Task: structure prediction
Amino acid sequence: MALRNIVKTGDPILTKVCRPVEKFDNKLAILLDDMYETMVKANGVGLAGPQVGLLRRLCVIDVGDENGRLELINPVITEMNGSEEDVEGCLSFPGDFGLVERPQKVKVSAQNRTGETFEIEGEGLLARALCHEIDHLDGILFVTKVTRMLDPSELETNEAEVEE
Ligand code: CO
Result:
């Protein structure tokens, strides 16, 4: 495994729409392993293709719950319910946090690294991470959705410093 560079704000790749993944080969497996390692090393809970410079519809997520390490290829939100405003950050915007309204619960359909389709349901932080990462695949950044950016003094808990 190897660490990849995380693309930071200002790079135009972050606002482009990604293409679907079509090849489920060893190169994809290596990429997913690298992305997971990169995300963990950066203390993030999610990382999407464009954040490592690839305009492909894939992301990795690990919010530290019982779902563990998630890999989503060509993910699509199929259901959303409720809404919740909470603190959100992004590995491409180091140190920036803001309040974003997201669905409280989502259902997502995606493929795994071998191309099989699966469904996952997420609530709270996992729902937020799923929405945040899938937004990345359409070039949508959390800063365009914040209701209010937070001052560093407003961040008290570890939970508030979640970057995706
Ligand atoms: Co992000």
Q: What stands out?
A: Residues 90-92, 132, 136, 164 surround cobalt (II) ion (CB under 6 Å). The longest strand covers residues 70-81. The CA atoms of residues 2 and 34 lie 5 Å apart.
